[in-house]
UniProtKB/TrEMBL annotation, chain A:
Keywords: Cell inner membrane, Cell membrane, Membrane, Peptide transport, Protein transport, Transmembrane, Transmembrane helix, Transport
Species this protein is from: Jiella flava
The protein's name: Oligopeptide transport system permease protein OppC
Record's subcellular location: Cell inner membrane; Cell membrane
Domain ABC transmembrane type-1: 106-295
UniProtKB/TrEMBL annotation, chain B:
Top-rank taxon, per record: Bacteria
Compartment annotation: Cell inner membrane
Membrane topology value: Peripheral membrane protein
Protein name: ATP-binding cassette domain-containing protein
InterPro entries named among the record's database cross-references: AAA+_ATPase (IPR003593), ABC_transp_ATP-bind (IPR050319), ABC_transporter-like_ATP-bd (IPR003439), ABC_transporter-like_CS (IPR017871), Oligopep_ABC_C (IPR013563), P-loop_NTPase (IPR027417)
Amino acid sequence: MSLYAGKRQALEEAFIERDDAIPRGKPRSVSRDALRRLRANKAAMTAIVIFALIVIAAIVGPHLVPYDFETPDWSAFTAPPSIESGHYFGTDQNGRDLLARTLYGTRVSLLVALIATTVSVVVGVLYGAIAGFAGGRVDSAMMRFVDVMYALPYILFVILLMVMFGRNVFLLFAAIGLLEWLTMARIVRGQTLSLKEKEFVEAARAGGVSNFAIILRHIVPNLVGPVVIYATLTIPEIVVTESFLSYLGFGVQEPLTSLGTLISEGAAALGAADWLLLFPGGVLIVMLLALAFIGDGLRDAFDPKDR
Amino acid sequence: MPETLLSVENLSTVFTLPGRALLAKSARLTAVSDVSFCLEEGETLGIVGESGCGKSTLGRSILRLIEPTEGRVVWQGRSLTALSKTEMRKARRDLSIIFQDPVASLDPRMNVGQIIEEPLKIAEPKLLRGERRKRVERVMDEVGLAPEMINRYPHEFSGGQAQRIGIARAIVTEPKLIVCDEPVSALDVSIQAQIVNLLKALKERMGLTLIFISHDLSVVRLVSDRILVLYLGRIVEIGPRQQVFQNPAHPYTQALLSAAPIPDPVVARSRERTALQGDPPSPINPPSGCGFRTRCPIAREDCAKDLPPLAKVDADHQVACLFWTEVRADPALAAG
């Protein structure tokens, strides 16, 4: 076989046709493609700008407003919005500046939503991916547990958690996140079931990658689309839950405030001081609409096929 | 003297299908049944058969990507089927696979460099980042891809290029055996030739042993030294390429060969063809005796009694047909 080795090799080299036409432009990862599509979506981009403004206002706003959210202005009780007095959103029955309270309430609502969504994403993705990837009995057992959790009444849990955590709102919402992951786990499990049959997962196994590493390196990154979409839809859900619980008196306690608490107080004063409902209510609606548009835009960007 | 690299002994793979009703007995699908063969270093074994005959399951069972139900796979004197999961993961650097669908076999979230280096990271964890990257670039060059593509993502490539990436991933750990599971059937014909030539050249250069699974006889003929014909998960014929193609001893092999298209219309019109009627029987409920008897032109009563054993046609050519001498003597009989 070593006869004419050089010639053989030269022939062989000539025989292998190369196929190295380099695709044009910059490398396009899936996420970069999605971002490009998102940028082309005007409604979503507007929503992102509005939402960003709300977030920025909630973070820096309270420092810029001359009044703080808990100190009464003794000269203005239930004052209507006016530019001269500096109470642009008016004041409440205790003389506290509504603009400062709305900004502060938005901050609390967003923070609570962020905590609960993060908890639900982390738990839901890991739980769902493990159940879907393991399959068989493990999957059945894990998903039956989810079904049981679904069947338990939500409000009962909240009351139990209230007893456990008392007045710590942030712990309470971390716990609410622990309830919210159920839907996320179901979505992720469904996606994982189809992903794990893909040949690239088999290729990884053939390369000796361990199951856990396959879940982290191949399954979870491919779940980004549905997870991001569902997470943006979870944020408004938590904001609404928080508002609802605060409205019932379970949520944030005075003098701390949140959008839900403000709306609940404003609703009581409806007719006498409409601005107490209109301003926080308006902020909540704008925020929820913006989040819904962002979620929609992300869905279109990540799966252009299912429009 | 080439040594035996791999021997497969009485390998069976059975899938348990979930029962339809709650307490119904679950059905058992025998995808691969009692398959034995040996593979010498440097040879290429072609596995052919209709779709659903267990070709891919056999390939995957050998690599334990699907756990075989019975039998042993002996690799260089060591039984793979007896290894623990961790040991098996270590053994995988010598064994590799190339898939049918080039795009589906690449993770869309990883770039080419990450895809190719993944098995290398496991095989040689001590390799430094820079060295690993150099290895990846060298392998890319070897399969005819430009190393500048290393940061690109799978969806930016053509099918042929994607398959080259798959091949690069398969050879980066310098394996000894590669299972090629229909590596060209998803590609354009012009690209098929490129990929087949690439595989042949790599095989020569790296001294690879290949198991080449395909339903395309012309491709199998081009690359294989020996041919294994599978029907309903069983070996019906195994032997050197020349013998199987020119002098098939099993009526099924004859039918397969006569169904393969010939690029010359004059020859094509003049030859006799045996078109097989119907579909292969269900592997959930295979016929008694010889699995092929329901479609065999020369089936007789005896065929329904027992499984036909593998008979020796000559030294390394075996066939599982009771009447192979007649088939061989009079090919027209099967063409009937």
